What does this fold into?
Amino acid sequence: MSVDDYSFGIEKFSDILWESHRLYKEHHDELFGEHVKFQPDVPRYYQFESLDCLAVFTIRDVYNRLVGYSYYILMKNHNNLADIVADNTLFFITNSHRKGWLASKFIRYCETKLFENGFTEVRMHSKSRTPFDILLKRSKYKEEEVVYIKKKE
It folds into this structure.
């Protein structure tokens, strides 16, 4: 499939939840492995949606199957109220559809829509286990911060 065989869109979390479960599970297992319990906070996403603080972008293939998503939490920057931030919380494309320029074009689509709607800052997060920093740098994102996490043993 070429990039032209895919469509990008903005959909409601509540409308795609039933079909996105398979992708959530694949995403979770890729990041954490099957040994870590899979338990997404679905009520929280419903809450964000009800407060108009969630933007869900989707990729669908020629058969209209969901093959990728990008979720953004929408907020004011509490350190600088002049900035309206779209903070990416989930970005995933199923492994079988990661080829060519699909991810780059999808990122560009998402940021274009966000900037058109008044957002002044788009934040993307790249996990150490599954980095896509090269793609973000190619898309003119700048490294701003490195986050370290320590979990309770």
Summary: Strands lie at 7-11, 54-60, 66-76, 84-93, 121-123. The two ends are 45 Å apart (CA to CA). The mean pLDDT is 91.
